[in-house]
């Protein structure tokens, strides 16, 4: 699952020069104060060299993560995430940016932190139930699409919770509430216990599935290929196929520079891989490129956009993001923010592309697929529909420390369509990593891509 823990470029704030003779002590930075996000159910308190997040609903306010200030409008969290805040047209409006994500979060200044944010939250099981239920009620966009009556869920499960309900019993109740959503971006976690459900008929990406698929591809599809090489801690593989075709496998949009490495290191590792793969000599020779996303666990949308920028000579819009922002009305959203693909400065490939997808193509793997829908040049999707989860996830903490996550964003095509729940469909349908395919030494999606891309004589 994708969790927003990105790094951002620092945004310096200009200071007004004051004559030395009348210089006064500098006032607080213009971004200091309390801010409410448009959507996301979040308050931010900036000041005293720190940023503190508060997870807010109409009935709760729970302290969340904190970040240390490293410069004007710049903050870093303990895990290395760097956040930047800058004001816009006036001091009471600002934007929060994160460069492993795409787009911005709009902020509005509040006069003060609400009083309930300073009071310890009750650890009563009924309060914990209410906080989780209300967070979904105010933020989750897809109840109607999933056919789930969330109010009926509360009516069914709330009476089962009382002051003596144990932590394990409450976890089990949450699991029963959330499983019917079949949303891979919905989960509840308590220690080693984790519950998350994928779309029926699909398999979640896992290290085991990734290793199995890669071993099969190397032995079958890349037999006879030349120049095979792994990059980015094995998350990216490239090989030259016969007939002037290239094969690029991407198993995730992160983890390129090792666990815990900041986004800038991930980005640099990706650039090194793309520079080695998309050399001017190779891009001149290629007649077609297969991009294999069939087992892709997601990661950073910004890294996907960075790859798309190496596949075009013409700027275009990848998609637009919007977020649910009315707690009482799931049909209300922020104004969609377009996310652009701008041709990269490095060597680029702009010829035909075949994108292989399946139910184990998840999250940032899907937003990258969506970013190629309107790519200038010939692009064809082959395989099975993607998983159907696109949003960054909101990470929430209950008063007892139990975690849960949920989505609240939609990614729109230029016609306003979203693919949440159903996934992005292929244009050419083929089975993907089924037991029958393995047993009969077949990879129908790969073979179809080779046939589609191979130059006709």
Identify the notable features of this structure and list them briefly.
globular; 27% strand; alpha+beta; disordered N terminus; single chain; 457 residues; 7-stranded mixed β-sheet; 11 helices
Q: Could you walk me through the main structural features you see in this protein, from its secondary elements to its overall organization?
A:
Helix content is 23%, strand content 27%. The chain has 457 residues and is of the alpha+beta class. Helix 8 runs parallel beside helix 9 (364-371). The longest helix has 15 residues, at 125-139.
Number of helices: 11
Got a strand count?
A: 22
Residues in β-strands, percent: 25-35%
Average of the residue pLDDT scores: 91
Which structural class is indicated by helix and strand composition?
A: alpha+beta
Indicate the radius of gyration in whole angstroms.
24 Å
Low-confidence stretches: 1-25
Helix content: 10-25%
**How far apart lie the N and C ends?**
44 Å
Q: What form results from the Cα inertia axes?
A: globular
Largest sheet: 8 strands, antiparallel, barrel
Q: Main sheet: which strands, in order across?
A: 1-2-3-4-5-6-7-8
């Amino acid at each position: 699952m994708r969790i927003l823990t990105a790094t951002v470029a620092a945004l310096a704030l200009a200071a007004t020069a004051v004559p030395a003779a009348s210089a006064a002590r500098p006032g607080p930075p213009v971004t200091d104060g309390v801010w409410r996000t448009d959507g996301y159910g979040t308050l931010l308190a900036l000041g005293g060299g720190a940023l503190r997040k508060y997870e807010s609903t109409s009935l709760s306010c729970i302290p969340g993560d904190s970040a240390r200030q490293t410069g004007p409008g710049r903050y870093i969290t303990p895990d290395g995430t760097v956040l930047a805040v800058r004001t816009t047209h006036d001091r009471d409006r600002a934007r929060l940016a994160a460069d492993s994500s795409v787009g911005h979060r709009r902020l509005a200044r509040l006069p003060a932190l609400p009083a309930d944010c300073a009071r310890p939250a009750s650890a009563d099981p009924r309060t914990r139930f209410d906080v989780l239920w209300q967070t979904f009620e105010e933020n989750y966009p897809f109840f109607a699409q999933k056919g789930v009556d969330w109010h009926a869920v509360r009516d069914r499960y709330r009476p089962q919770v009382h002051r003596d309900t144990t932590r394990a019993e409450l976890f089990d109740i949450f699991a029963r509430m959330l499983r019917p959503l079949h949303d891979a971006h919905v989960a509840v976690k308590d220690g080693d216990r984790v519950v998350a459900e994928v779309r029926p008929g699909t398999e979640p990406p896992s290290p085991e599935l990734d290793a199995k698929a890669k071993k099969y591809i190397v032995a079958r599809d890349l037999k006879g290929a030349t120049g095979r090489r792994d990059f980015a801690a094995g998350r990216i593989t490239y090989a030259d196929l016969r007939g002037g075709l290239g094969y690029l496998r991407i198993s995730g949009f992160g983890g390129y520079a090792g666990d815990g490495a900041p986004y800038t290191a991930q980005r640099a590792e990706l650039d090194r891989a793309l520079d080695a793969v998309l050399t001017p000599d190779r891009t001149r020779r290629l007649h077609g490129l297969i991009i294999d996303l069939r087992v892709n666990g997601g990661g950073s949308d910004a890294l996907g956009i960075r790859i798309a920028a190496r596949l075009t000579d013409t700027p275009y819009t990848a998609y637009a993001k919007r977020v649910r922002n009315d707690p009482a009305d799931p049909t209300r959203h922020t104004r969609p923010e377009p996310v652009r693909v701008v041709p990269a400065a490095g060597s680029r490939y702009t010829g035909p592309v075949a994108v292989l997808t399946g139910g184990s193509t998840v999250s940032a793997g899907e937003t990258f697929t969506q970013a190629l829908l309107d790519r200038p040049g010939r692009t064809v999707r082959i395989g099975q529909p993607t998983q159907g989860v696109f949003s960054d996830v909101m990470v929430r903490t209950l008063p007892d420390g139990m975690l849960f996550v949920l989505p609240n964003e939609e990614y729109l095509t230029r016609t306003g369509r979203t693919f949440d729940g159903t996934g992005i469909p292929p244009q050419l349908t083929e089975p993907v990593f089924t037991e029958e395919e393995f047993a009969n030494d077949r990879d129908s999606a790969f073979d179809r891509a080779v046939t589609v891309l191979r130059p006709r004589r």
